[in-house]
């Protein structure tokens, strides 16, 4: 068996071989002898089946197994010649050529390897990060906002026209086509105007109304209104304003700090201001990181760090991008691509540069995570999914199982690793404002 092995570059290799007919025959004979020991064939005792009968019974399957055995030998010898260990390989070998003739098989096998990435002095590629400046006015405004949110409601003494932010205490009853509908009636309901709690347009029509006044409010239920028979229907509500409430004033002092910092001994307004300032700084920094600095830093790494990419990984990325693009195509466009191979390849090539950048970024993040000793365990992924599901009012366990069954957990984990790596690198360059 003639084998020729060569490394295309640091991430790809090609193993070519000529497998002679005699090699296939020897393999077939060996496999048939082994199978004869265990095969069950009617008319013969187990272990006593003649090899000629086994060959007749399992003909094509034996040939396929003999060829597969020869291919395995080609791959193993080729990897040995190239000094490539199995744990260096990525994905399955790709058989790019398998030409059979009467006396031989010409084969070519492409293999992909994990690229060796020389990160160099990657820290020097990171620009200095100026910490966002938070003023005393910003802190005072946030504390006033938090205090207002906790403030109790009180009735207003003067009967004035209602405005945005007031809480209307109302009786209402709704009608569709002149008939009351189920769930459309309440008494002394407290509705904060501007909250968007009711059907669009309802709260706006209460602006300028006074206590003890009665009005008719005309609205249209949204088309996606809970999938009920009310969706898209016009409705009229009879509304009576029983009272108007506003938020009471809350003193911003040490007592407020104690309420807002539960469990902290000696909580003071100064301590509250420090914590609120840190919170605002973190929010502004997070926004700066996610909107600008992280994408910019990853772009710099992709541009400055050079290494070879495994071809098949790039092709997989192109396939995913192509499938995503196809979702927005018409049926005619998809049929045309299926029938026109040249056009399909042309489209694939337009996606190649972005695919290479994406694959390169993934390998760089992986190398940086090792260099920075950053890991994300499955437990952290689960906690993140649980937290986001609870924020959206979903069942956390159900959300996690859906992600898991769809095979999304590795992608979420990689995204979290990327976030941690880039955050840690940027944090190392923070300069106080």
TrEMBL record:
Q: PPIase FKBP-type domain spans which residues?
A: 165-247
Name the encoding gene, please: tig
Q: What is known of its domains?
A: Consists of 3 domains; the N-terminus binds the ribosome, the middle domain has PPIase activity, while the C-terminus has intrinsic chaperone activity on its own.
Q: Top enzyme class of this protein?
A: isomerase
Q: Tell me, which GO biological process terms does this entry list?
A: cell division; protein folding; protein transport
Q: Which organism is it from?
A: Sulfurimonas hongkongensis
**Mind telling me what this protein is named?**
Trigger factor
| Domain of life per record | Bacteria
Q: Where in the cell is it found?
A: Cytoplasm
The UniProt keyword set, sorted, is: Cell cycle, Cell division, Chaperone, Coiled coil, Cytoplasm, Isomerase, Rotamase
Organism lineage string? Bacteria, Pseudomonadati, Campylobacterota, Epsilonproteobacteria, Campylobacterales
Recorded catalytic activity of this chain's protein:
[protein]-peptidylproline (omega=180) = [protein]-peptidylproline (omega=0)
Q: Which NCBIfam families match?
A: tig (TIGR00115)
Biological role stated in the UniProt entry: Involved in protein export. Acts as a chaperone by maintaining the newly synthesized protein in an open conformation. Functions as a peptidyl-prolyl cis-trans isomerase.
